[in-house]
Amino acid sequence: MSFVKCCFEAGEGHDFLDSFVQKCTDPGCCCGCCSALRPRYKRLVDNIFPASPQDGLVKSNMEKLTFYSLSSPEKLDRIGEYLFQKASRDIYRRRHGFVIIAMEAMDQLLLACHSQTLNLFVESFLKMVQKLLESTDPQLQILATQSFVRFANIEEDTPSYHRRYDFFVSKFSAMCHSNHGDTSTRDKIRLAGIQGLQGVIRKTVSDDLVENIWEAQHMDKIVPSLLYNMQSAEKYETVSCMETEARDGAEEEPPRLAECCLRELVGRASFGHIRSVLRPVLTHFDRHELWVPNDFAVHTFKIIMFSIQAQYSYSVVEALMQHVEAAGAGGAGEPRGRARVRAACAAVLSHIVAIAAADSVGPSVLEIINNLLTNLRASVARDSEKETDEKLYQEALINALGEFSDHLPDFQKIDIMMFIVNKVPSTQRGAKGTKADAMLQTILLKSLLKVGTTYKTTELSKAFPAAFLEALLRLAAAAAPPSRALLQRLLHTLLDRRHHAGLLRAPTVDYAELGLTVEKCSRQDLIFISKHGYAIFSSLYEGLQLESNTLENIETIYTTLALLCIELASEETICDIMQLILAIQQSSVSNPVLSVAQQCHLVAVSVALAALLPHVVLLPLDRLQDYIDKIIESRREEAPHLLPPLQPDYPQLGPAALPNKLPYLMIDQMAVCECLKACGVDASRLQSPSPYAAGAALALAHRHSWVEAGAAQGRDSLADIGAPPGAGLELDSAHSSPGVQRHAGSTQAAGVSLEALRRAAGGPSDAERRELERRRATLNNAFRTAPFHHLLTLTQPKYEIQEKLEEIFSSISEEPLLPASGACSPAGNTKSYQQSVPPYTKYFPELFLY
Amino acid sequence: MEDYKFLFKVVLVGNAGVGKTCLVRRFTQGLFPPGQGATIGVDFMIKTVEVDGEKVKLQIWDTAGQERFRSITQSYYRSAHALILVYDISCQPTFDCLPDWLREIEEYANNKVLRILVGNKTDREDREIPRHIGEDFAQRHGMYFLETSAKEAENVERLFMEIAVELMEQAKCKELPKYDGSLGPINGKTTSVGDTSCCLRS
Ligand SMILES: Nc1nc2c(ncn2[C@@H]2O[C@H](COP(=O)(O)OP(=O)(O)OP(=O)(O)O)[C@@H](O)[C@H]2O)c(=O)[nH]1
Ligand SMILES: [Mg+2]
Fold it and tell me: Of the candidates B42, B70, B196, which has its C-beta nearest A164's C-beta?
């Protein structure tokens, strides 16, 4: 009994005695404590333990021990080891009260002592923590974690490089998945697990020599453990930044704490480490099938984007995109499920690209766009029409593109649009594109539209750099009908600075009510239109002549024209616009391929545009307005089918009601001239022969190319800009070429005349015969009146054909979607565009030197 | 009590419901838990045994069989000294999945890891996999083989003891695989927290 008395002043009862007996058989035991030779540090340690564990650490004795440790730091490691031995025994005997006290003592020593001496003590300390973690008692595990976290927050001067945290990562991760029967205990264990991981991360993240926490063996445990806790939240609230203090209770709920921890981890990741975090994230989402529905995925990836160092945010987008690709390439699961996962991934992408956009610069921007386009193209290649999931996926990618662009500065949007437009497969008129090409065309145009919608036009010349405009106009005629309509919509969004497109969706003649806002056309815009107006107008004109046009095509072109009128109408341009209107009206009778409905449409469109002019030109055009009103009035009575709104069909129309039978209901060129003159406008240009005529496309296309080529080569761009706007227009109209009316049977025509050819093969109709006659007449006329050089070009068609064919072939030969990096820069565009310098300039440069 | 001489890490894998957790609890706690729930992620148990008068500490990582936890469980293979692959002798599909498990082990575990095939639930009447089929499979793939019943405590003790004996043998012959250098102690110290490889304790 004296033994007992010696060690424990107040005996603890019977079972205690038993254990003591056991204890004394132990070689590592404190039998020495009974000896007078017992070392001082052991005595000091023993004294901190109370008789009964409920009494807690003996504070005054703990102070003594601390003081001793501070004054004899060389003893610290032995104190640690001794405490550990004692605790081990107590764990074995399930005397948890004493274990807790030992741990508390170690905590206090750890905090009190200074770093040089800490190293060896830490070994015992961590052995103790591990010992507690190995126990099955949740209370001890939690206690151990708390001590570990305290330790993790201490900065060691010289961390011990042989120290490994493998066990802690493994054990804390296991705790994060606790399945304890009692929910509150379960949550406590999980919380402890997360805190422990947080501690390991803090302890190791800044020093790879301690333990490279970014290695897969650790990340594959840490990341899924955090996500597993996050996903169990009842609802996901995503906030951009999380201040732990400000958010009460964050420390009490596993999902919230796990989120904090993930933020910290991601925030500390350097560029080389991002992937180490993202890979297990993506795997976790696959494994736990968290893509569909995707709210948790969106939540998580937003958190990642918010906490990642801004300059790396691009790599998250990249990783996600690659994951989407991989899912497409043949991940697990049946194809339909995969398509759905892909769509959901892409939707996540569209939620986060905006966050990336703010921090993306230069090459990474185009890299992202390029990746999105590549995925789109792959999807189109896979697409089998019916797969709605594939469609959803494409929509999601396009949305991502739009979201991304929306957050870029405007100048980059133009770059992006140029980039996309160059990816659109160009099925030239006449050349048959594959179905996939047509789909890709539509999809890329949709993307283009998405980006375009985010662009805010100020100056037209900035919205339409020459190469971009050229590419757009090329597509305007080349694509399938739905794509053509998309292209017009893109033009709408780029032209419509004052939000009129909604009002002008379909032709009308009642503008007074619409409340259009018109401003004087700026000088820059006038220069722009003097340079490119002709190309734009003739492209739109050509667009109206296509046999395959649907109502939508015609209406969208009308909207484009109406917007052009509003944005550009001025004294200087009114004649050109009027000339176009008259030409459109004329084409309704002269273009043999048009259906009756299409004829009516064109007549209605021209009167709608004519009626618009007085509302948008800041001149008193009363006479013109009266004249147009009169025509509208008469049509209302006699021929309502020649007025808007356009009908898909005009079934009860007799031959006598066709436009060509009602010349007195048409807008008359001479009358318009008179009206304009009366209003003080110089209408002389209006009297020159119309440059627009069916089949004129080729010649005109070259002409516009020439203007641009000139500008690009810097030959006359300065002169152009320097000259008053009127001069530019003069230049253009001097070129108005009458010499383009070609024989319908001639082989050189693509487009309209090709369609005409096809018709002709079926036997000439009345209309066609009339058209032939008309053409013969104008041709004769042209030879009689046209200047010599026009005739020259007319009689030299073969160069043109050859060049044209080359051009077509080179554009058909498929452009790789992924150019070598850098080829997507505007410089790249300029190059290809210079190569397409039109044949005229090559063969007859002297004709174009003005 | 920290006087063990060897520390070995044992990882249990196999389809959900084959009885991994029951085996571990039978061994470490000596009981057959009624209504044992499916394991989530990974569970951890410790048991110290004595082999030839020397203490051997077994760190046992009991993984979840469910597919969705596969990626986290795989991350525990790497540092294992022994892998116990369990199937249920009364459930053919759990046997049919063995090749898949082997492929995973091949991919994620150390190639010298000790592999033991265990057919559990021998107490059941409705056996579907005859003993020799399991034995054949184990032999073909160079694994040890044992049939157990966690319920009847049959062969459970033996399973873990043989693992301890075998690993100790290997350790003594210094055959024990050298795990990736990063795991082992640097600068010559043998004390290492967070237990690294076989941990010969002094
Ligand atoms: N008859 C019999 N039943 C057993 C035996 N071992 C386990 N079971 C039962 O099998 C079921 C699954 O056991 P667990 O130990 O949870 O299986 P597990 O492999 O850990 O499953 P997961 O944790 O989901 O991977 C439980 O209902 C057990 O009661 C056994 O030896 N005999
Ligand atoms: Mg289990």
Answer: B196
Distance from the alpha carbon of residue A599 to the mean position of ligand 2, in angstroms: 77
Atom from ligand 1 closest to the CA of residue B12 = 19
CA of B20 to the centre of ligand 1 (A): 6
| Token pair belonging to A683 | 């209408």
What is the sign, positive or negative, of the torsion defined by CA atoms of A324, A326, A331, A334?
positive
Q: Which residues of B touch A224 (CB under 8 A)?
A: 41, 69, 71-72
Euclidean distance between CA atoms A287 and B114, whole angstroms: 28
Q: Which of B71, B189, B193 sits opposite A224 (nearest CB)?
A: B71
Q: With contact defined as beta carbons under 8 Å apart, do B100 and B68 qualify?
A: no
Cα-to-chain-centroid distance, residue A230: 27
Backbone angles phi, psi at B109, to 5 degrees: -95, 165
Given a contact cutoff of 8 angstroms between Cβ atoms, the answer to whether A652 and A600 are in contact is: no
Q: Dihedral through CA A308, CA A314, CA A317, CA A319, nearest 10?
A: -90
Spatial separation of the C-alpha atoms in residues A319 and A24, rounded to whole Å: 62
Nearest CA in chain B to A186: B40
Query: Tokens at residue B126, please?
Result: 């409705």
| Per-residue CA distances from B150 to A840, B14, B121 (Å) | 92, 15, 7
- Rounded Cα gap, residues B183 and A565, in angstroms: 76
ipTM of the complex model = 0.86
Token pair of A519 as six digits: 């401003």
Subunit contact B195:A168, Cβ cutoff 8 A: no
Domain positions in chain A: 1-158, 164-269, 496-646+661-692, 740-848
Ligand 1 centre from A141 Cα, in Å? Answer: 26
Neighboring chain A residues of B68 at a CB cutoff of 8 Å: 287-289
At B105, phi and psi to the nearest 5? -60, -45
DSSP A124-189: HHHHHHHHHHHSS-HHHHHHHHHHHHHHHTSPPSS--TT---HHHHHHHHHHHT---SSHHHHHHH
Q: Which residue in A19, A123, A170 has the most chain B C-beta atoms within 10 A of its own C-beta, making it the best mutation to test that interface?
A: A170
Determine, for residues B182 and A212 on separate chains, whether the beta-carbon distance falls below 8 Å: yes
CA distance A124 to A129: 9
Q: Where are the domains of chain B?
A: 6-201
**CB-CB neighbors (< 8 A) of A138 in chain B:** none
Give the chain A residue nearest B40 (alpha carbons): A177
Q: pLDDT tens for residues A156-210?
A: 766 667 778 899 999 999 999 999 989 999 999 999 999 999 999 988 877 766 6
pLDDT tens, position by position, A2-59 = 333 333 333 333 333 333 333 344 444 444 444 557 788 888 888 889 888 888 888 8
CA distance linking residue A612 with residue A558, whole number of Å: 11
| Residue in B2, B41, B74 nearest the CB of A177 | B41
Helix A788-795 × helix A766-785 angle, to 10° = 130
Does domain B6-201 sit in CATH 3.40.50.300?
yes
Give chain A's contact residues with B (Cβ, < 8 Å).
28, 84-85, 88-89, 91-92, 123, 126-127, 130-131, 134, 136, 161-168, 170-171, 173-174, 176-179, 212, 215-217, 220-221, 224-225, 228, 280, 283-284, 287-289
Give CA torsion, residues A381, A385, A387, A389, to 10 deg: 70
Instruction: Give the DSSP H or E segment for B43.
Output: strand B42-51
Nearest-by-CA chain B residue for A289: B68
Residues 6+ positions from B56 with CB-CB distance below 8 Å: B4, B5, B6, B7, B8, B48, B49, B50, B164, B167, B168
CA-nearest residue to B191 within chain A is A123
pLDDT tens digits for range A257-316: 999 999 999 999 988 899 999 999 999 999 998 988 888 999 999 999 999 988 888 888
